[in-house]
Amino acid sequence: MTEKPAIGWIGLGKLGLPIAGRIAEAGYSVTGYDPASDRLALAAGRGIEGTAAMESAARADVVFSCLPDDRALRAATLGEQGLLALMRKGAVFVEISTVSPEASAEVAKAAEAAGVHYLRVPISGNASIAHTGNLSCFASGPKEVFEEILPMLATFTRAQVHLGPGEEARYAKLAINLMMAATAVMLGESLALARRGKLDWQDMLDVLADSAAASPMVKYKVGPLAERDFTSTFSCKQMIKDLDLIIGAGRAGSVPMPLTALVRETYAAIVARGEGALDFIAPVKHTEWLAGLGEPERRTSRDADG
Asked: Does residue 123 fall inside a structural domain?
């Protein structure tokens, strides 16, 4: 592409809006579709031309979609009035949601029939950092198309990798989200055990953050855990949705996933207790409840004990 292509955007939610905004800030013309008028009003403040007619966004050179689940993806893209039927032949469709490989494969088949180039580009990261450009993405689909749109991806991601021609990126995203969910549950049990051993809450977090077990996710969560802040960046309800996708993909591929099933039940218990809107790190709080532990005492000063 020698000139900056026109961009269409489908889905201006908590993740979609800041990403589309970063593309607009980079000098691209972005037309964004969302059925909610309040999201369109917010889009205008980010330099995005909002529209309540999907067709207006669908006529762009490159169309992105950021949608909540399989049902929304199928509803938006398939059928005679769906996005793929409205897009022009030769255009590029970039789908960044976390959805099942099965639903994505249906979209791929419809895109091929419509003469549209289809890239699966699920995003790693959350809405709280989307405005910073520090997301990362995994892509699969035609490699030459991926390379063509890299400048657009670079406006909102710090890392981009192409993994293959088909649904590889979908599996990569599910595999990573499984590690995040399992880590959160394991972290809950580890911290509860440490508290039973009379370790100070902040001391244990400090040790954990400087240990061999300190993944980037663990380090990122140490700060909120120190403050006992379970405000959602990605909720327990959202994690259940992804775990269901993961288990479904495992069944389809004959991959036994007993640990994943147990992790899913932990999140189901959190939701059943009415705490599904908490951050996905809430298994820490849940395990404390199971163990009969109250809120940990926290030092007001790191020098309080001399």
From this structure: yes
- Residue 283 to residues 205, 225, 306, Cα–Cα distance (Å): 16, 11, 33
Whether residue 298 contacts residue 197, with contact meaning beta carbons closer than 8 Å, is answered with no
3-state secondary structure of 30: strand
Domain hosting residue 46, numbered range: 7-165
**Long-range contacts of 126-135, Cβ-Cβ distance < 8 Å, separation of 24 or more:** 126/15, 126/233, 126/234, 127/14, 127/15, 127/18, 127/233, 128/233, 130/15, 130/18, 130/19, 130/22, 130/156, 131/18, 131/21, 131/22, 133/22, 133/157, 133/158, 134/158, 135/19
Centre a 10 Å sphere on the Cβ of residue 2 and count the other Cβ atoms it contains. Answer: 4
Closest C-alpha to 155, from 178, 130, 175: 130
* Structure token pair of residue 180: 């995040």
Is the whole model's pTM more than 0.90, yes or no?
Answer: yes
CATH of the domain at 258: 1.10.1040.10
Query: What digits encode the pLDDT tens for the residues 249-270?
Result: 999 999 999 999 999 999 999 9
Which of 101, 102, 170 lies closest to 137 in space, CA to CA? Answer: 170
Specify the amino acid at residue 64.
F
How is 202-256 classified by DSSP, letter by letter? HHHHHHHHTSTT--HHHHHHHHHHHTT----SSBHHHHHHHHHHHHHHHHHTT--
Partnered with residue 161 across adjacent β-strands are 138
Q: How long a stretch of residues is the chain?
A: 306
